[in-house]
Amino acid sequence: MAELTMTDVRKSYGPVSALTGVDLRAPEGSLTAVLGPSGCGKTTLLRCVAGFERVDAGAITVADRTVAGPGTHVPPHRRRVAVVPQEGALFPHLSVAANVAYGLDRPARRSGRVEEVLALVGLAGYGARMPHQLSGGQQQRVAVARALAPRPPLVLLDEPFSALDAALRGGLRRDVREALRADGATGILVTHDQGEALSMADQVAVMRAGVIVQAGAPAAVYRDPVDAWVANFLGEAVLLPATVAGNAAQSALGPLALAAATTAGGHVTVLVRPEQIRLDRPGATGVPGVVLRQDFHGHDALVVIGLADDVTVTARVLDAVPAVAIGDRVSLTVVGPVRAFAA
């Protein structure tokens, strides 16, 4: 196992700054998801850790060994860092077992390691098959097995599930996470999928414009984002202007309890998650509104409600079939405290 540390890492391509001072610590044996929009520097971060790019400034250490820094650039093949690309990139002329064994020396190939890692990724007994005989999800499992086979201290996963359909992604995410944990590897997952990051990772690092703006446990980052941008990026968010009065904020949803004291001035932006909004019959205690739209997702539905002054909010209804229809009048209340940001 190995801890990864990045300290003030910078990387530019000509006039374009890809990394503008990245600080990140990934504890050994953990899975850290680096999450951010396209173009924020996620892939460059991964390439710098792998050694495919030289950093312009800063330092990268893996298992207390500096692999990049002032006057230091350890080449990729000497870093003992494995990379799982977006698509498995298997050798088409080699069997599954031969693909997995590719980076192993002869004693390791005879040790049963190939069969061991295939079992870890749920492909026990598939060694004799050829890549073209596998589904896309199975090919990605082989790619993960090949990465784990040499027992690298660090495994980098570059959006490995993006090419798969939704039905495959969920199961593969769980199996890959368990395989990493069972093998004791530290993992870095680069993704733009919020659900993937929040469900898989021990730590989520949110990236914007070449820098990590927040890192922490998934629940903590979701519930206590550092700013409105992170709040909105990490899932459905209702962001409303409000005025602070003591320990509460007055908004279009009425008075809202604040999760923490704010040093912002009288005017703030408050974050309400859709699951905090409860719908009730018209006339009940709460703020009146009208149902404008429903987006049904099977396990829940997002209900868009219009309030006074053309304000719209979104509530998450956990019933399989929401008991409201477009045009219905409802009353809204907010459950639990909310987060406030400077306006």
Automatic annotation (TrEMBL):
Presence of the UniProt keyword Iron in the record: yes
Entry-linked InterPro entries: AAA+_ATPase (IPR003593), ABC_SmlMolc_Importer (IPR050093), ABC_transporter-like_ATP-bd (IPR003439), ABC_transporter-like_CS (IPR017871), ABC_transpr_FbpC (IPR015853), Mo/tungstate-bd_C_term_dom (IPR008995), P-loop_NTPase (IPR027417), Transp-assoc_OB_typ2 (IPR013611)
Domain ABC transporter span(s) in chain numbering: 4-234
Record GO terms (molecular function): ATP binding
Presence of the UniProt keyword Membrane in the record: yes
Database matches in Pfam families: ABC_tran, TOBE_2
Organism superkingdom: Bacteria
Keywords: ATP-binding, Cell membrane, Ion transport, Iron, Iron transport, Membrane, Nucleotide-binding, Transport
PROSITE patterns: ABC_TRANSPORTER_1, ABC_TRANSPORTER_2
Transmembrane regions: none
Name the record gives this protein: ABC transporter ATP-binding protein
Source species: Pilimelia columellifera subsp. columellifera
Organism ancestry: Bacteria, Bacillati, Actinomycetota, Actinomycetes, Micromonosporales
